[in-house]
UniProtKB/TrEMBL annotation:
Family under the similarity heading: Belongs to the peroxiredoxin family. Prx5 subfamily.
Keyword terms of this UniProt record: Antioxidant, Oxidoreductase, Peroxidase, Redox-active center
UniProt-listed PROSITE patterns: THIOREDOXIN_2
Pfam families: Redoxin (PF08534)
Species this protein is from: Thalassotalea loyana
Listed name of the protein: Glutathione-dependent peroxiredoxin
Amino acid sequence: MITSVPKVVFKTRVRNEALGGPNPFEWKDLTTDEVFANKNVVLFSLPGAFTPTCSTSHLPRFEELYQEFQDQGVDAVVCLSVNDAFVMYQWGLSQHAKNVFLLPDGNGEFTRKMGMLVDKSNLGFGMRSWRYSMYVENGEIKKLFSEPGYEDNCPTDPFEVTDADTMLSYLKGR
């Protein structure tokens, strides 16, 4: 079982008003250390932006409970998906995400190193993340929730233990 977050570089896009024009964004590499070092982080990972459960339940509830996570000493709530930076940005806009940081794992490297990469070709998705959530202190995984039934081309999309309320209950019970 993995005990610390994998070391990877995420390819993200950040706004730079100095660029001007209709698309004032530039590429920025973001390291695992920049996301997790010296912070208490709740990360939840899901199969894909714009997908039903992810858009109607998973992300919205973490967004809704953000202040309660902060009250438990959480510095950041991160949503990770094997989607590119452009998709994650547009999904964030459509979801009105203000508090949860949407982190693109476009190549699936972090997800693969976590042991959570699954084939969802049966849905036309290709390789994606299995649904999981974790609480991380300074890069060390303190608690990991993973949905039951991990398998390639799973005919269902379990959503029982990686929800915001389960994570919040865990944090309150520490």
